[in-house]
Amino acid sequence: MRRLGLVGLVCLFVMAGLTATQTSAQAFTVICTGKTKSEVATCDLSGYAEVMHQMHWRMYAGHNCTNYAAWRMKKAGVPEPKILMGNARDWHTNAKKLGYLVDNRPAVGSIAQWSKAASHVAYVEQVGSGFLILSEDSYTSKTYRRYKVLTGASWYPERFIHFKDVAAPPPAESDPTPAPTTPAPAPAVTSKVTVSGPAKVTTSAKPKVTVKVAAAKGVVPQGTVRVRRGGVTVKTVTLKAGHRGSVAVTLPKMKRGKQWISAVFDGSAQVRKATSPTIKVVVTKPAKVVSARTAIVLPAKQFTVGTRPTATVTVTPTDGRTTTNAVSVYVDGKRIASPKLTKAKKGKVTVRLPALAPGRHTIRATYWGSRTVRRSKARAQAFAVVEPTTVRASLAKAAVRSNEPAQVVATVGTARGVAPAAGEVWVLADGAKVASAPLSAAARGTVTVALPVLAPGTRAISVQYRGSTYQTASATGTLPLLVQERSITGTSLSATTIKSTAQAKLTISVHSGRTVPQTSGAVAVLVGGKQVATVTLTAASKGKVVVTLPKLAVGKHAVSASFGGTDLLEPSTSVVRTLTVTK
């Protein structure tokens, strides 16, 4: 988060929590809201609408939860802090640094604060029996609001900062909701505290213990937990709702001998205070030489050619002592680096791998040990290096007949100029796979793929190389393939026998295989195989034209018509009809 502006991100969570009314999971009730200056002035009680464009305590001006809280404190006479209060999640920490009281007891005039579920602050307008009235502003939703939240609800504040509390709530701000909806405050329930940890540690280790707080009636305990050694508090932590009553605590190093550890839960308004039984921890001197665990970690299991990932080697002695001396790192059995461990590095070093060829590789590490830590090896880790590919495609013919399969030539290559010897090439028509072919070493990256007969029209052809073990996938753009549709040309004569002084008429019809009339293209009229006339189809003709034949000699004549085709329609010729001419 930025120093100021990302407080608005926090208010995003607040807005999500306040878009509903009172429910079992979110017990709150919105009293009023406002976005514009006039709406804020109507809803707010502090005069913030007139000053919201100004920065208070160096917070971002306008709709902002921290700027609104700062204004309320400024108006109450609280001097501007000498340190920057920062994001809402940091207010309780910075308030403690300034000497202000922070606890879980609400008071009118205090600042309610959340830092786990959401980074947010609000002003406590009223403390009632089992409820609070809060007011706040939000950076993300650009909304000021005042609302009621019930004690123990999911949106109940995590803590309260007491900059300058008000002695009593304003009389005008009594509970604005009907009395039957306000539950009576629940009495504090009993709790039980247990602490567990190692039975034996060394003086060089910082032991970890687990403190568990169980509350009656299913209440989730929240509050301060103090871990004591010999009756003296050595560590204090905050038990939050997300911990679900269990928190791990790392203690300071301890002196030799028997140490007695206990934990105290200081209680809250909902849960009573309790102390755990004492456990015994025996502290001994560390062994002169101990074993260590060495591990090597890569950021991923696969990398692209040309990248140089960083491997992290961690050496962890069994008792937590500091490790020194060298660590050797090997890739495919060859040592690539030998960084030295120092106390400052705390058992961890990083090594950048060299550029590697495509294929399977292994990495391992050896810690060479010291006078106090034994030598150890990391388990070898396998990883892969892959290279990008390119695929080019061309069509054997840009246009094919309706029953003619098209052919696509695909070539797959790499930046090294070495073609992949495995994988599969897919051919797609209009985005759907229609054919495929495998790559082999003999293919040298080029395959010719025959397509099935495709539907008539302009098809968008593209090619994909699906990749292989050590080559990535790649794809081409689209190539247009014209698939023609078959045509049907029909004829009929006005009469099959005529006098030599008369002229017969030939009716010609042209349509597609789908019986769609053809509205363009030329038709040649043939008599005895010789062209005697040419007509052009138009939209007005609707696929049908009538041609008057010339006068013919006495005898029998073979009459036919031939459609020359178009880009989308194949040529076709009609059946031959016989015309008899008499004297």
TrEMBL record:
Residues 167-190 are annotated as: Disordered. Residues 1-27 form the signal peptide. Transmembrane segments: none annotated. Keywords: Signal. One of its GO terms (biological process) is carbohydrate metabolic process. The keyword Methyltransferase does not apply. The keyword Nucleotidyltransferase does not apply. SUPFAM superfamilies: Cysteine proteinases. This is Ig-like domain repeat protein. It comes from the Bacteria. It comes from Aeromicrobium tamlense. The lineage of its organism: Bacteria, Bacillati, Actinomycetota, Actinomycetes, Propionibacteriales. Residues 168-186 have a biased composition (Pro residues). Residues 40-162 form the Peptidase C51 domain.
